[in-house]
Each structure stands twice: as C-alpha cells, then as structure tokens.
C-alpha cells in the first residue's frame, strides 16, 4: 500500500466531509457514544473484544471522536494520519480485531451521525464513501501487522497460551507475572516499551475481558514479564475487574492467552543521546523494560520514579542494584507523601511533586525523554519539557488505554 497516494474519493465527497469538521468538534463524543451503545446492543459479541471499563468512563468514545475528527480534518491527505492509524492498528492487532469488523462499525457510525445530528442523505453518502477508504487503510496496515507478528521468529497468530511460571509481589499494589509459552516453543523478541494483550475468562462474567499490559523486562529472556497494579473502583478505574482477578485468582501454573507484543511506544536505539525515563506510579512498567535494556547496552540513562511512598514503589531494590552495578545508570526517587519510615531511611531524593528546577539538576536537556503514568502526571511532565525547550522529537510518552490529549 502506498500511503501517500491520493484518496479514492470525489472532490465533492471531500468537500462535504471537510465541512462536517466543526460539527464533529461540537458533537463528536455524543455521536460516538450513541454509536457504541447501539452497536453493542445489536452485536454484543463485540463485548468480548472491547474494554468495558473504557466504555464506562467515556475514554473509548472520546478516542474514537478524536480519530474521526483527525480523518475529517485530513481528508485530502490521509497520509498525514498514518502515525495515528499505526498506533490504533497496534491495539487492534493485539485485540484480534479483523477486517470483517469494519463494515459493522461503518453501519453503526453512519446511523449515529444520522440519528444524533439529523444529517441528510448527501452527508451520509459522503461519509459512507470516506469511511470505506479510511477503513481500507486500517485493514491493510493491520493485515501487515498480523503477518509480521505471525511470521517473525518465535511469533504466533492471535492468542497463544502462556504458563505463569512465577508470581512476585512487588509492592502493596503491584504484582509481576513471569510468562513462558505453554507449548514450549520459541519466544518472539520485542522492542523495549511494547505491550501484550492478556485475555481472561472470569467466572460469572458473560464476556471475556482483554487488557494490555506493558512488558516490564528486557527482551531476549526465556520469559515475558508483566507487572500489574491492582485497580480499585473509582472515577479513573470503574471496575478493575481484570487486575483484581489476576492478583486474587491467577497463580503459578495457570495458563493465560497472550497476544504477540505490539505498540509504537518503544526505545529508539538508533540514538546515542543519553536517556531520561520519568515514571509516574505503575507507569514504570514500559520504562523498566527500557531501563534494563539500557543498562545492558551501557548507554547513559537517568531513571526517575515518582510514587506516593515506599509502600507502592515497585522494584526499588532492583533499580538501586542496577545503579550500583552500572556507572551508566542513575536512579532517583520522588515521593509525594513519604512515610515517617521513608524519611528516617532517606529513601528518596525529593519530596512532593516533580518540578522543572529539580529535573534540570539531575538530567540533561540534550537527552531523549520517555515518560508514562497517569494522565495528569503526563500533562505535567510534557509541559515541563516544553517549558525547558526540549525538542518535540526528543519527547516520547505512552498512554494506558485509549489515547487522550495532553
């Protein structure tokens, strides 16, 4: 596929779609919320694929609205949205979304546009034509990803059984699961920062649940490792059903269906610049894979872990040992609410929140910056780096779940 090719749409179609951009900005989430409600009501089998929690907290409708808006705004040059397409396609491939799902989505998206905004047939026809072109781009990109995942050394198609060979409690809220292929076969390599999808069937639940978890160790081992935070009910995490199931019920010897590694957030090894890794809470997981890899490669790296306190600080001993054993590794800890024991032990370098002045004292502006954590943490870090004047090409970040604007 040549992504730079002119889209196969008439000028009239492109004019109509472009003209709907203000409407999508105004009512995009309303349209996509209606879309998901009607589609799941008539195709409940799709609930075996989609994340129910993201539906409840509105993140999935918002993400879809953002994608639709980006497509409409770039309808004359769809090559401009290829980076977004690839990011979404990684998620789709890891979830098992197929070409046959796209006509279903198209049907309900057009119905939502018609019902929510009362769009006339001319607009529906234009969007139907445009959706066909956009869907074909996704289908072709994802087909290539499925092929690559299956044909790589140690690769596989869709989901493969992995045995939990070790389960380790890392903190009060985080546990690591070491996973090896149940079939005894080879294990595909991955890029530091990538994730796998885990599929679980929970007793009493009508549908299967799939979640993405970052691989939290370097590639090249005979296992994959994921480190999972136990989520509790709240505004950001309405159910935490999968994480609680993994913590409470999955034990060593159990087998979990796992996708091949995916994701477009990974360490760029072509650069020789120093690296700064900024982790907020459980956002350490993809960064830990990067840290372990950089330690092995002897590339200069500064790792900063921001956490509430030592009770929820995972892998503190591991990172301290890395720093002690490798001159190229520097590790710093920032506690928002340290315990008295933390203060007595001097187990952190900064109290409170990460700020620019402190970051400038431990890191170089010439570094490549990677960060992950809660959305508010990432907004704060991105704003700091921009204020510092770090070029956009040196700023890399990862969202857990559907991408949001920061």
From TrEMBL:
Feature type site, description Involved in heme-bound ligand stabilization and O-O bond activation: 36
Sequence ranges assigned to domain FAD-binding FR-type in this UniProt record: 157-268
Domain Globin as annotated: residue spans: 8-143
Residues engaged in binding FAD: 195, 211-214, 399-402
Catalytic EC class: oxidoreductase
SUPFAM superfamilies assigned: Ferredoxin reductase-like, C-terminal NADP-linked domain, Globin-like, Riboflavin synthase domain-like
Catalytic activity: 2 nitric oxide + NADH + 2 O2 = 2 nitrate + NAD(+) + H(+); 2 nitric oxide + NADPH + 2 O2 = 2 nitrate + NADP(+) + H(+)
GO molecular function terms attached to this record: FAD binding; heme binding; metal ion binding; nitric oxide dioxygenase NAD(P)H activity; oxygen binding; oxygen carrier activity
Active site residues according to the UniProt entry: 102, 142
EC assignment: 1.14.12.17
One Pfam family in the UniProt entry: FAD_binding_6
Gene3D superfamilies reported for this sequence: Globins, Nucleotide-binding domain of ferredoxin-NADP reductase (FNR) module, Translation factors
UniProt free text on domains: Consists of two distinct domains; an N-terminal heme-containing oxygen-binding domain and a C-terminal reductase domain with binding sites for FAD and NAD(P)H.
Functional note: Is involved in NO detoxification in an aerobic process, termed nitric oxide dioxygenase (NOD) reaction that utilizes O(2) and NAD(P)H to convert NO to nitrate, which protects the bacterium from various noxious nitrogen compounds. Therefore, plays a central role in the inducible response to nitrosative stress.
The protein's name: Flavohemoprotein
Organism, as annotated: Ectobacillus ponti
């Amino acid at each position: 596929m040549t992504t730079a090719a002119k889209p196969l749409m008439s000028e009239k179609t492109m004019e109509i779609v472009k003209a709907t951009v203000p409407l999508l900005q105004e009512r995009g989430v309303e349209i996509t919320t209606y879309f998901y409600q009607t589609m799941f009501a008539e195709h409940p089998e799709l609930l075996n694929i989609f994340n129910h929690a993201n539906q409840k907290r509105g993140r999935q409708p918002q993400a879809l609205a953002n994608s639709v808006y980006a497509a409409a705004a770039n309808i004359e040059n769809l090559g401009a949205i290829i980076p977004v397409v690839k990011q979404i396609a990684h998620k789709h491939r890891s979830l098992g979304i197929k070409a046959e799902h796209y006509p279903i989505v198209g049907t309900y998206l057009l119905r939502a546009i018609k019902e929510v905004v009362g769009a006339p047939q001319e607009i529906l026809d234009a969007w139907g034509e445009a959706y066909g072109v956009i869907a074909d781009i996704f289908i072709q990109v994802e087909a290539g990803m499925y092929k690559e995942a299956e044909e790589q050394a140690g690769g596989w198609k869709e989901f493969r059984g992995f045995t939990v060979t070790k389960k380790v409690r890392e903190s009060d809220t985080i546990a690591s699961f070491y996973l090896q292929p149940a079939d005894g076969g080879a294990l595909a390599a991955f890029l530091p920062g990538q994730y796998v999808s885990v599929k679980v069937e929970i007793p009493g639940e009508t549908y299967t649940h799939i979640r993405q978890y970052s691989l939290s160790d370097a590639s090249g081992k005979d296992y994959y490792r994921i480190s999972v935070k136990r989520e509790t009910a709240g505004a950001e995490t309405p159910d935490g059903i999968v994480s609680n199931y993994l913590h409470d019920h999955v034990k060593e010897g159990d087998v979990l269906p796992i996708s091949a590694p995916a994701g477009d957030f990974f360490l760029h090894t072509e650069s020789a610049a120093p690296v700064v890794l900024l982790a907020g809470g459980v956002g350490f997981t993809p960064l830990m894979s990067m840290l372990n890899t950089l330690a092995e490669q002897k590339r200069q790296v500064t790792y900063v872990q921001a956490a509430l306190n030592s009770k929820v600080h995972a892998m503190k001993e591991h990172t301290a040992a890395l720093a002690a054993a490798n001159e190229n590794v520097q590790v710093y800890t920032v506690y928002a609410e340290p315990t008295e024991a933390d203060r007595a032990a001097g187990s952190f370098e900064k109290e409170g929140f990460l700020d620019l002045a402190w970051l400038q004292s431990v890191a170089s502006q010439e570094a490549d910056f990677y960060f992950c954590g809660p959305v508010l943490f990432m907004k704060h870090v991105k704003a700091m780096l921009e204020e510092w004047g770090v070029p956009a090409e040196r700023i890399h970040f990862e969202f857990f779940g559907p991408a949001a604007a920061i």
